[in-house]
């Protein structure tokens, strides 16, 4: 099992072999920005790989096409280190940056997280 650190939220996510980052996040009770819910069409789930890039799975054709369209919309030649969470699998630990990711209320992993919400 690999661990993905999601910044700026500071969340650690466990991912099984073959599971996408998006699917793992949803299964763990997180909210992840999306419009197409894993169809590689909207690119709203796009993240930036900050560390451990060598542990990101290969980019397949559908993701590559979506990233090319995203680069064209943003008038960039490439989207270096950008991946779609709905398509990216991992083979080892890495850190990604994706604003808007959050733990849903009631789905906390650690007791101190539950206490901090209850005390608020």
Automatic annotation (TrEMBL):
Residues 2-102 form the 2Fe-2S ferredoxin-type domain. The lineage of its organism: Bacteria, Bacillati, Actinomycetota, Actinomycetes, Mycobacteriales. It comes from the Bacteria. GO terms for molecular function: iron-sulfur cluster binding. Pfam families: Fer2. This is Ferredoxin. Residues 97-120 are annotated as: Disordered. Residues 109-120 have a biased composition (Basic and acidic residues). InterPro entries: 2Fe-2S_ferredoxin-like_sf (IPR036010), 2Fe-2S_ferredoxin-type (IPR001041), Beta-grasp_dom_sf (IPR012675).
């Amino acid at each position: 099992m690999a661990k993905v650190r999601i910044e700026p939220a500071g969340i650690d996510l466990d991912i099984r072999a073959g599971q996408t980052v998006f699917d793992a996040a949803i299964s763990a009770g997180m909210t992840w920005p999306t419009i197409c819910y894993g169809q590689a069409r909207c690119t709203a789930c796009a993240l930036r790989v900050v560390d451990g890039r060598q542990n990101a799975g290969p980019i397949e054709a559908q993701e590559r096409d979506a990233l090319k369209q995203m680069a064209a919309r943003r008038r960039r030649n490439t989207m270096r280190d950008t991946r779609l969470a709905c398509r990216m699998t991992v083979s080892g630990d890495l850190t990604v940056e994706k604003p808007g990711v959050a733990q849903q209320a009631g789905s906390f992993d650690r007791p101190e997280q539950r206490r901090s919400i209850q005390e608020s």
